Structure to design on (439 residues):
């Protein structure tokens, strides 16, 4: 068979060469200037620039389980398999206190993963790679803000706010583990070795705070309430907002004001009262916005355990409505969708609202919508209706039940409402569908 493929390939090459020979250079040079992507195209309008910015969200690490286990408690009570030699506790036993970067089952790992464009959780445990990639990308975006020529003021603010937030946030995430470091606030040439000075923890923290301060007035409290956010309504729950920026400003200042970081930065082993006060003010502002807007709320005590990652939870998303900032949710949407579909199929004969399914999955209704829309392109409500109509079609074709009986079987007491729902989705009435498609 190979000889036939080679023959076809050779014939194609000869034909192509003839065509190129018959085409003048002028035809090529006269091609439209818009036939290729221009250098500034990723930044010229909100849709393109937001697409560029979205990858920063995929650089957020997975802390809970980027692998089967992450030795998250770092303790001797950690027990998994007697013969397993890749847990962090073993590194400690052997005096390797930096084992959290090189141990296979640990976080943050520096030996595996780190791909920003990957959709696999196993690639999201390499904090070092993901943060530095994110910092560079944020700096590239900031450097190109002037090329955003087709955008409203709101759209400009959203892009700029996200970029400055992420630049500060990725630095802070690195500082949590490696201490003070150079603060990279420009696009470094790839062919020149950087020679930036390492800053103290407090110096680096103040630069993070400056970036958060830049972002705070630009970011909304809720993307769903913005004009730009309407295009992704129901998908905005995890997008960076004002409350997140205030919370991380407070957290950064609180760490910087601690006795450890004060001492490590050249001060006494005492609290830095000034920074702690600024932290309290940032937290206070964030809490006031939360109380005024109800954007987030404390979980009920009966749902307290759902705030935490627990063993064998079936992929349930922890945090309830209390979680302001989440780890990377890569693959979470698929997991939620699979569980939602399982519940839907089990209860298809009893119509339930999206809110009831969300409650059964221990997630909010907006987050269920976000997950379903991300996987299917539909809202949860529309997906439920499409599955009901699909089952109705099956019953109309393969059973002798009347339309009224089928409506009742699917949980609809009002046959007229069921018929309208069917017609709106299928494009014809149930009776017409049966007459047309029943064999």
């Amino acid at each position: 068979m190979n000889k036939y493929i080679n023959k076809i390939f050779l014939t194609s090459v000869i034909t192509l060469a003839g065509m190129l020979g018959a085409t003048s250079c002028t035809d090529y040079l006269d091609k439209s200037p818009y036939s290729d992507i221009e250098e500034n195209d990723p930044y010229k309008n909100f849709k393109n620039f937001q697409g560029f910015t979205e990858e920063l969200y995929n650089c957020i690490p997975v802390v809970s389980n980027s692998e089967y286990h992450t030795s998250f408690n770092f303790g001797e009570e950690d027990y998994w398999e007697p013969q397993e030699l890749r847990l962090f506790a073993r590194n400690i036993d052997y005096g390797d206190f930096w084992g959290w970067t090189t141990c296979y089952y640990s976080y943050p790992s520096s030996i595996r993963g780190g791909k920003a464009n990957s959709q696999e959780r196993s690639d999201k445990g390499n904090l070092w790679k993901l943060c530095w990639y994110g910092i560079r990308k944020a700096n590239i975006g900031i450097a190109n803000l002037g090329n955003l020529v087709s955008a409203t003021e709101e759209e400009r603010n959203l892009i700029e706010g996200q970029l400055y937030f992420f630049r500060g946030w990725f630095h802070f995430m690195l500082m949590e583990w490696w201490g003070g470091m150079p603060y990279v606030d420009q696009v470094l040439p790839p062919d020149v070795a950087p020679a930036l000075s390492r800053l103290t923890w407090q110096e680096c923290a103040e630069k993070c705070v400056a970036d958060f301060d830049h972002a705070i007035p630009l970011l909304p409290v809720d993307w769903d309430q913005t004009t730009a956010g309407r295009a992704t309504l129901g998908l905005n729950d995890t997008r960076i907002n004002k409350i997140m920026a205030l919370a991380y400003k407070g957290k950064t200042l609180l760490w910087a004001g601690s006795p450890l970081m004060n001492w490590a930065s050249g001060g006494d082993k005492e609290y830095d009262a000034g920074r702690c006060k600024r932290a309290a003010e940032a937290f206070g502002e964030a809490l006031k916005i939360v109380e005024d807007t109800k954007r987030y709320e404390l979980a009920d005590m009966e749902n307290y355990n759902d705030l935490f990652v627990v063993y064998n939870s079936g992929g349930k998303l922890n945090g309830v409505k209390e979680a302001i900032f989440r780890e990377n949710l890569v693959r979470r949407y698929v997991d939620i969708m699979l569980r939602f579909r399982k519940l839907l199929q089990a209860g298809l004969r009893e119509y339930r609202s999206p809110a009831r399914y969300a409650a059964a999955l221990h997630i909010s209704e907006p987050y269920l919508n976000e997950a379903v829309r991300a996987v299917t392109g539909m809202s949860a409500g529309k997906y439920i209706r499409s599955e009901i109509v699909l089952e109705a079609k099956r019953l109309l074709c393969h059973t002798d039940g009347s339309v009224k009986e089928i409506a009742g079987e699917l949980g609809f007491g009002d046959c007229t409402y069921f018929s309208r729902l069917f017609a709106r989705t299928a494009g014809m009435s149930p009776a017409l569908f049966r007459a047309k498609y029943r064999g």
Summary: Confidence is low (pLDDT under 50) at residues 1-29.
